């Protein structure tokens, strides 16, 4: 059973991942390319925010000192968040001045695919965690993320193996986002502490399975996996892109404007 505050950062890492991606994906609500997809992505967001709530509640109970799921979600600054940088990025790669939109559905789905492919493996491992509450959250989340992965994977294949335009845009999304996945495998004190306590996951042990799934999917989608290299993001260490502050400002503005309000 997880006790004390030593492993709270690991719970926050998992919760921040879910909350930030849930908030980011929710930006498509009312703007999806088709009604069914609009609803599907909204449901994915609800699942992620539901996971975040359970994890924040567990972290708050671990931390004590008046922490609640709301204080952890709405009253921490960007530098306190421990999510992967990949998840806070906007729904597009680099834009040119004549870009017609700053939201690209292929970018959203490629990101969801990369993240879901990881979290299926993470939750499957964590459902055996000696922390019974974390194990229960993992078991629930695994059922949801299996659907998220199937949804994103099918769309990556459909878009990659679709028209010349959909292929080009999906390949551009893969080229843009793949470097950010290197953070999945980089060392962090948060994960080391949780692993030493016996409640975390050795994420690097999951990499062969993640690589196999990603490679098979990209091949079926007729997409090319870019070579690794370049800067490795450090979002889970609190070093974020400029995009997270804007995302949090929109998400937190009501709670911070009326901090004593009850809902």
State the main characteristics.
9 helices; single chain; 263 residues; mainly alpha
Task: Summarize the structure in words.
The protein has 263 residues and is mostly helical. Helix content is 59%, strand content 0%. The protein contains nine helices and no strands. It has helices at residues 8-26, 35-63, 69-74, 105-126, 132-160, 164-177, 189-196, 207-220, 243-257.
Write the layout of secondary structure elements.
Blueprint (H helix, E strand, L loop, with lengths): L7 H19 L8 H29 L5 H6 L30 H22 L5 H29 L3 H14 L11 H8 L10 H14 L22 H15 L6
Question: How many strands, which pairing sense, and closed or not: the largest β-sheet?
Answer: none
Give the H and E element order: HHHHHHHHH
Helix content: 55-70%
Low-confidence stretches at least 5 residues in length (pLDDT < 50)? Answer: none
Overall average residue pLDDT: 92
Total helical segments: 9
Structural class: mainly alpha
Q: What proportion of the residues form beta strands (DSSP E)?
A: under 5%
Overall geometric form: globular
The tally of strands reads 0
Summarize the model shown:
By secondary structure, the chain is an all-alpha fold. It is 59% helix and 0% strand.
